[in-house]
């Protein structure tokens, strides 16, 4: 355990300033100052940050750790190790598991396993309904008492307005968010990528924008009626961005997230039958991607989350028609975003860190996460912002290697990740 981080650069009022950080025996930040002269007795307890950037530990509000039920794809150990490799110290895991944790014994067992088997803070969403697809609601109040930070059927949209309305009423009463995968499955029609030029060229069925925006429009009106905190996952279309923008103007309690891959890629990247480019929602048009950037600029989009979705290599070697949806993102998110949005884009480092730390902590009520402050847990990530690497899956700690960014040159490398003062990852 490190007791002192020396010679780091910390964001203060949007500017990088030199800081040392002392960590107490409880894993909390004891002091921050330009120079701390009281040194630990054991020199091994000192980490020299070598002028690198010290960030609050990143927060990923959308991961699939696949455990229990799909451990050939990922486990709590490998998923949390991958997150730490990416600088994430807190994640919120999705409940599309087997068995689905839709009863309290299964959910409470999962909460315990998250605490024991993860090397980071792994929070948990509970299902909205039984089995993620049935109309019967879980007991939302009981799940909150057992540790749920929100409710989602991610992987499926809630298909009936009545069920969603009832869920929103209950969630509003207990003060937790409904976290929505917005997709009207009657409009998907077996689609595998966006309904656009790539789908036509490859002769595969497409997924239209309206399959997302129609359900988002419905849910926004239900949120207006109930007053619930309504959060949209992985927003991907210009129409949904416009709906969220208007809803915020109307005072509806709505937030949303965007993934790195929807910001960085669009359907023009799909040049062949390659399932590494198959995710849900799909990569949309250039106009949709531009709308996502505009949503970040004007605050319509609140945060960035990876939707880390590992699969086996053999699964993703199948055709677009048969491979599962999803890509990994935990280990590539920061470097891809820093390179594209900050180094080569219009955004500041402070904006990027806010989307990955303080804002998700605020949205999901994680008061011990997302900040560097005396008295707070030493959840810390150290990044070398000048280091340039090429994305290579042989370095991944995730079981999943299913990334469309293989071979991409990026800037920004995780050097150290601390979780409550304990080393969760350190670059060799």
Automatic annotation (TrEMBL):
Binding site residues for substrate: 64-66, 96, 280, 311, 325-326
Binding site for Zn(2+) 2: 154, 181, 234
Pathway info: Pyrimidine metabolism; UMP biosynthesis via de novo pathway; (S)-dihydroorotate from bicarbonate: step 3/3
Amidohydrolase domain: residues covered: 339-424
Entry GO CC: cytoplasm
InterPro entries per UniProt: Amidohydro_3, DHOase, DHOase/Allantoinase_Hydrolase, DHOase_cat, Dihydroorotase_CS, Metal-dep_hydrolase_composite, Metal_Hydrolase
Reactions listed under catalytic activity: (S)-dihydroorotate + H2O = N-carbamoyl-L-aspartate + H(+)
Record carries keyword Metal-binding: yes
Cofactor note: Binds 2 Zn(2+) ions per subunit.
GO biological process, one term: purine nucleobase catabolic process
Gene Ontology molecular functions: allantoinase activity; dihydroorotase activity; zinc ion binding
Keywords of the record: Hydrolase, Metal-binding, Pyrimidine biosynthesis, Zinc
Family: Belongs to the metallo-dependent hydrolases superfamily. DHOase family. Class I DHOase subfamily.
Protein name per its UniProtKB record: Dihydroorotase
Name of the gene: pyrC
